Amino acid sequence: MDELRLIKKVRRNGDLAAADKLVRYYYDEIHSFVKKQISDDNTALDLTQDIFISMLKTIHHFDVKRSTGFRAWLYKIASNKIVDWYRSRSYRELSLSIQLDEEKPIDEADFTRQLEKRDFMERVCHYIGGLPSDTQKIFRLYIFASHTFSEIAAAVDMPEGSVKSKYYRLVRLLRKEFANDE
User: Fold this and answer.
1) DSSP code, position 179
2) pLDDT digits (tens, 9 = 90+) for 122-156
3) Per the structure, how many domains does the chain have?
């Protein structure tokens, strides 16, 4: 796929076919990134849609010459949207409704382990949601998108050393915060 050609077509004349190709090419990857962080399927789908709407609305701001790549730019949008969602009222309402929902399917011991793992990850994500947005982005891109520190540095416009420092500081903080959960 020649994404630069597609981007130019979208910018120039709002080419819907080119926009569709861009969205289709990255959709599964971005949805997976969102889904790893947000357990509710409908919310993950809505948020993924918002990410692509935002991408299409702001594609004129994507600087082909200066940027490290369209994929990194798209992950930056996705990270910002996820950070915003965790700070939003919608997250608090969804979190409360999940806590109040008593109809949980009960299977086997494996289900219990999966539920404990999911619960732990939700608590970690909730905790991360209260941190500064640059720290959240670094964590989410490293853990959920498997980006390298250099890719993250480009996405958050920060030196790689600073990204590493913030990440490892956060790891120490998480170990301390969740020490009793191990």
Assistant:
1) G
2) 788 888 888 898 898 899 888 888 889 998 888 88
3) 1
